[in-house]
Amino acid sequence: MASSQAPPPPSRTIALYQKDGTLHTHNTTISSISPLSTLAPETQALFKKSDKDADDNNNNNNTREYLVVVVSAETIFHAQGGGQPTDTGIMTISSPENENENENENAQVTEKPVFYVQSVRASPPSILHLGIFKGSPSSSSSSSSRFTPGVHVTQTIDVGPRLLHSRLHTAGHALSIAVMSLTQPSSSSSSSSSSSSSSKPAVVLPSDLKEGKASHFPSAASIEFHGLIPGTAKQAIQEAVDALIARDLAISIHFVDEAEALRRCGPVAEGVKGDVNAEGEGKGDVRLVEIEGAGAYPCGGTHVRTLKDVGRVVVKGIKRQKGVSKSHMFGIVRGLTLSMIEQGETYNA
Ligand SMILES: [Zn+2]
């Protein structure tokens, strides 16, 4: 798309959250800062698509004119995408701007600006942080003027939502693996009749079932499959996912070439292109998440370290709907309930 305005040269943001999902605070530098309203329409539109995750303030007319977009050299903020919501948090200036600040404990004059990150989107090669400065409109503009390119800032994400999103996201992969495991012939009970002290469930799902889109949003966590999943499979899916979580497998991240991605992931990696934005060092690698020994997926999101960190995944239901232009049915396994046992907390997705 041609824009009539002269766009600033896009600066690359290294997505640190894709290398190390445990970073909750990090120092980096500002690459650019722009009022949202001055950005190209297609860039502004990135933030309009789905703001259901963000604060209502985001679209509030009273604040909208003060919304600015900050680009940094690196980021630990997850950019919304791949079914996972945006991270939120703050950025503050970390380098001493002047000598006075060090000694002046109750300095009103040099109060450091706090930039509240409300919504993050990828606009390759940049990652855009939409937000607002704390304080009055006048202080907002002076804050804004201190967030200049080259300034060192400390990023801090809201850890609670990040952890929830990582759990829901990992639960999505676990659920997908569990469902697909029910399309495979069970190795133990081959022939006739009952028996079965084996914990392996029988095949209950069609062998041509394919994994589709996933949502890891708290209110809509679900995985779509192309193919028919009967409602009666719910219990078998629940047992399969319980058994998988109980194995407490480690979750790891790998950057591999496209051929290797296909080898490790199978059909879900078909057509997946190496993403130069994924890692920032220009190898064009595909980022994979691997649940040790159980399966791997091309994925740009954040995850927990082992399956036990997910908590209990509850299969809430199976919804079936016709594909738009296909005779295929979509089986949507939806609604995960996660329980963190050690905290006695139950999250109803
Ligand atoms: Zn993932």
UniProtKB/TrEMBL annotation:
Bias kind Low complexity: ranges: 186-199
Pfam families in the record: tRNA_SAD (PF07973)
InterPro entries: Alanyl-tRNA_Editing_Enzymes, Thr/Ala-tRNA-synth_IIc_edit, Transl_B-barrel_sf, tRNA_SAD
GO biological process, one term: tRNA aminoacylation
Molecular function GO terms recorded: aminoacyl-tRNA ligase activity; ATP binding
Domain Threonyl/alanyl tRNA synthetase SAD: 286-323
Gene3D superfamilies: 2.40.30.130, Threonyl-trna Synthetase, Chain A, domain 2
Cofactors: Zn(2+)
Region (Disordered): 185-205
Transmembrane segments: none
Similarity comment: family membership: Belongs to the class-II aminoacyl-tRNA synthetase family. Alax-L subfamily.
Matching PANTHER family: ALANYL-TRNA EDITING PROTEIN, THREONYL AND ALANYL TRNA SYNTHETASE SECOND ADDITIONAL DOMAIN-CONTAINING PROTEIN
UniProt-recorded name of the protein: Threonyl/alanyl tRNA synthetase SAD domain-containing protein
